[in-house]
Amino acid sequence: NKNTILRSRLFTHKEVIYSLTKNDPLSTLIGIYSAKESVKKALNISNLNLYSKIEINYEENGRPFVLINNKKIINIDISISHSNGYAISICIPNSL
Known about the structure:
The chain has helices spanning about 1-10, 15-20, 25-40, and strands spanning about 55-60, 65-70, 70-75, 75-85, 85-95. By secondary structure, it is an alpha+beta fold.
């Protein structure tokens, strides 16, 4: 299935499972994708195959954080918002 292949290229298993715990899984995945794009731009990464290496995870309080190659990136802040099928995110490197 094309959707399954695309989903596995863009999202980690953990991200998909997380989205299924939300009222609107598709909006959640759109927000996660937006966050990954923000991370790529903030860190000046152009590798298109990196989506599955970037993982958006969440603290117990709901605050998102970034893992790249399973390592927590602590020198960036990220925020995600989504509503009515739209998503926006921002990633700010805080060590520059």
